[in-house]
């Protein structure tokens, strides 16, 4: 089966890792050369691009494509791990922010790309 090559799009569900998907595919197909184009957190669901055989050489191309993320934010609590898994501390919400206010805060305080520019390799 190692002669098979190609790309498969998988809708990864919650609570499994990207490598869980790869291990399952290897077991089911018998194909050893399988890779994915970017890890999805176990708490994330969504598109996992999987490559088989010689198509694994294309993974970097797919990793460079633009991505979109959708999230749900619960402003009623904080967690020790900043995600759904940590211990939660409830907080009182005096005013529910507007969508515009949330977007402005995200742009100002969570500009991930500008934070990592200092680490970029040229």
Characterize the structure shown.
The chain is of the alpha+beta class. It has two domains: 6-63, no CATH class; 77-119, no CATH class. 27% of the residues lie in helices and 19% in strands. It has four helices and five strands, in the order βαββαββαα. The strands form two sheets. Strands 1-3-2 form a three-stranded antiparallel beta sheet, with helices on one face. It has a two-stranded antiparallel sheet with strand order 4-5. Strand 4 (77-79) and strand 5 (88-90) form a beta hairpin.
Topology (SSEs and partners):
Layout: E1 6-12, H1 18-29, E2 34-36, E3 46-52, H2 59-63, E4 77-79, E5 88-90, H3 99-109, H4 112-116
Antiparallel strand pairs: 1-3, 2-3, 4-5
The gross shape turns out to be: elongated
Largest sheet: 3 strands, antiparallel
Number of domains: 2
The oligomeric state of the chains shown is single chain
Q: What order do the strands of the largest sheet run in, or round the barrel if closed?
A: 1-3-2
Q: Determine the mean pLDDT.
A: 83
Which series of helices and strands comes N to C?
A: EHEEHEEHH
Number of helical stretches of at least 4 residues: 4
Q: Structural class of the helices, strands and pairings?
A: alpha+beta
Rg: 19 Å
- Strand percent estimate: 15-25%
Poorly predicted regions are 117-122
Fraction of helical residues:
25-40%
Give the number of DSSP strands: 5
Give the N-to-C terminal Cα separation: 39 Å
